[in-house]
Design brief:
The chain is α+β, with helices and mostly antiparallel strands and 157 residues long. It is built from 6 helices and 5 strands. It folds into 2 domains: 3-99, hpI Integrase, Chain A (Orthogonal Bundle), CATH 1.10.443; 101-157. It has helices spanning 3-7, 48-60, 81-95, 102-115, 121-128, 133-140; strands spanning 14-15, 20-23, 26-28, 31-33, 42-45. The longest helix is centred in the middle third of the chain and has 15 residues, at 81-95.
Length: 157
């Protein structure tokens, strides 16, 4: 997901029973609006690890009674991706991890999904919200890493 989409997530966007997530908004410069493009409005199946992490997130902030999935240090919704970046870098530093751009997580996820044959590039393209799978293919796929998808695996198997 893009940063604005991530901080735009609300609990009603997540279907724990069917393990799916629906991206239908983003937060940008203090405003809530539609994602980047029509193709960025999407629904996809979550990995088991993501479902588990989201359940932990929900439990962690249950007393806040917020419709938003991710809250800032004051337990309020993030107002911008830039505000999220500041917190993201703080958390990385506290965790002892090297600071990197949040976008690197998106890129690594997509590359690993394709490289490990967890999904084919067309499916990954839809998950990323790309307008056309050619964008995904040019960015993430080469002959040596592409193969058809095998659903149901864990990224960590």
């Amino acid at each position: 997901m893009r940063r604005g989409e991530l901080i735009g997530l609300q609990w009603d966007d997540i279907d724990f029973e069917n393990e799916t997530i629906f991206i239908r908004r983003r937060v940008r410069e203090g405003d809530i609006d539609l994602p980047k493009s029509f193709s960025s409005i999407r629904k996809f199946t979550l990995l088991k690890e993501a479902v588990d992490a989201l359940k932990e997130q929900k439990e962690l902030f249950k007393d806040e009674n917020s419709e938003w999935v991710f809250l800032n240090r004051y337990n309020k919704p993030f107002k911008s991706p830039q505000q999220f970046d500041i917190r993201y870098k703080e958390v990385l530093k506290i965790s002892g991890l090297k600071a990197d751009r949040f976008y690197s997580l998106r890129h690594t996820y997509a590359t690993n999904m394709i490289r490990n044959s967890l999904e084919n590039f067309v499916t990954v393209s839809g998950m990323l919200g790309h307008k056309d799978s050619v964008i995904t293919q040019k960015t993430y796929v080469s002959n040596e890493i592409y193969s058809s998808g095998l659903k149901g695996k864990s990224l960590f198997d």
